[in-house]
Amino acid sequence: MKVLVINCGSSSIKYQLFDMEREEILAKGIVDRIGIEGSFIKHQSRGENHVIEVPMPDHEVGIKHVLELLTHEIYGVIESLSEITAVGHRVVHGGEYFSDSVLIDDRVIKAIEECSSFAPLHNPPNLMGIKAAMHVLPGVPQVAVFDTAFHQTMPKHAYIYGLPYEYYERHRIRRYGFHGTSHYYVAHRTAELAGRPIEELKIITCHLGNGSSLAAVMNGRCVDTSLGFGTTTGVLMGTRTGDVDPVALLHIMEKEGLSPKQISDLIHKQSGIKGLSGVSNDLRDVERAAEEGNERARLTLEVLCYGVAKYIGAYAAAMNGVDVISFTAGIGENSPLVRAKVCSRLTFLGVHLDEKANEKAFRGVEGFITTPDSRVKVAVVPTNEELVIARDTKRLVESRR
Questions:
Q1: What is the total count of domains within the chain?
Q2: Domain-located, residue 153
Q3: Torsion over CA of 267, 216, 330 and 126, rounded to 10 degrees?
Q4: pLDDT at 271 over 80
Q5: Distance (Å, rounded) from C-alpha 61 to C-alpha 43?
Q6: Domain extent at residue 45
Q7: Is 0.70 surpassed by the pTM of this model?
Q8: Tell me, what's the pLDDT at 88?
Q9: Residues 133, 205: one domain?
Q10: Could you write out the DSSP letters of every residue in 117-180?
Q11: Is residue 401 over pLDDT 80?
Q12: pLDDT digits (tens, 9 = 90+) for 145-188
């Protein structure tokens, strides 16, 4: 079975073609600058990289070009489109409609449209990709895999806010959480590395990147997560605030005369690592600046690591214990400094860092970074959201046969 995985943004399409017999990536790439002058495709197949400049007025044309590349006599990896068994789509928000991935039909499309008000920057382009793929590949099963689905197992006391209850009833204002496919993959892979069934484990997954979230996973089910109704709560992120008192935002609005749109830009695009450090939203730049004596860069690192450790402590309390903590995503996988600073605050849990193992764990390295006598193990697990989408797509297509 060959599964095409698609992740559509407002002006881009990321894609990977999997051979699910071996879970092997046959080709992958990105269509960029859709609807913008200078559009192009970066395509990787057979160990070679290709850049093709081609006009791309919309997502449907972009997907057509992807399919042409996959069957191309030089760049291609399949002989015909009939070899594509199914298409899996990343969809950011499924609201309370979906607690699992689903085969796409008219009902599913309608529900995704209704959730677009929750994720206005993401769901509409996700839908464009779905509709374009359905049109270009008629009759091929299409599957939606939701970032929010894994978190739908949270108990009500973990996801409800302290607002008047009618806002939940009328508008479904609650904690949803994101990065669900990443947390799902990392939690299950962590259990495999630990050699124990996930149903017996209490795991905290730390997805740390330009966007970050932590999740408490007890017996294979998410019971809490740090992102909420939107994508700004929790720990410090690239340009997003993390936790901030909403009254402070109201105060800034009043004092600076800012509009709701300007406040939204402030909390989503001007804050976080970038706003606090004054250096960059890229933590590598901030780490270098801190080494050179930049005090704001040093403070930014401390705020980030303190916040991660604080959430780990909270989630250990939420699950009444923890067996394994896993770091993943761009920062989690590639910053030994952040992992070391976080773990230095977790000795009360019995965490003992293996400094050499921690220094070696970056750029795709997987494994434990704690000493054998560490009561709570800490792991680095490179995430693989695309593989989760491909596996779910395969599972759902096979289940209907």
A1: 2
A2: no
A3: -70
A4: yes
A5: 16
A6: 2-146
A7: yes
A8: 96
A9: no
A10: GTSTTTHHHHHHHHHHHHHHSTTS-EEEEETTGGGGGS-HHHH--SS-HHHHHHH--S---S-H
A11: no
A12: 999 999 999 999 999 999 999 999 999 999 999 999 999 999 99
- Which of 27, 1, 7, 29 has its CA nearest to residue 386? 7
58 belongs to the catalytic site: no
**Position 267 in a domain:** yes
Determine, yes or no, domain membership for 134.
Answer: yes
pLDDT at residue 8, as a whole number = 87
Name the catalytic one among 32, 147, 224, 392.
147
Dihedrals phi, psi of 132, to nearest 5 degrees:
-65, -45
Are residues 332 and 341 in contact, defined by beta-carbon separation less than 8 angstroms? no
347 lies in the same domain as 259 = yes
| Mean confidence (pLDDT) of the chain | 94
For 286-320, what is each residue's pLDDT tens digit?
999 999 999 999 999 999 999 999 999 999 999 99
> What's 242's domain CATH number?
3.30.420.40
Q: Which residue has better confidence, 48 or 175? A: 175
Can you read off the two tokens belonging to residue 132?
A: 């374009």
Tell me: pLDDT of 10 over 80. no
Q: Is residue 185 part of a domain?
A: no
Those residues with Cβ within 8 angstroms of residue 347's Cβ, 6 or more apart along the chain or in another chain: none
Question: What are the residue ranges of helices labelled H in 259-384?
Answer: 260-269, 272-277, 283-291, 295-318, 329-334, 336-343, 355-360
Q: Tell which phi-psi region holds residue 365, choosing left (phi > 0), alpha (psi between -120 and 50) or beta.
A: beta
Close Cβ partners of 216 (under 8 Å, ≥ 6 residues apart):
202, 203, 204, 222, 223, 224, 225, 315, 318, 319
Which amino acid belongs to residue 28? K
Residues in the chain: 401
Structure tokens at 209: 């990147």
Is the same domain home to 265 and 120? no
Digit-coded pLDDT (tens) for 212-234:
999 999 999 999 999 999 889 99
Same domain, 132 and 251: no
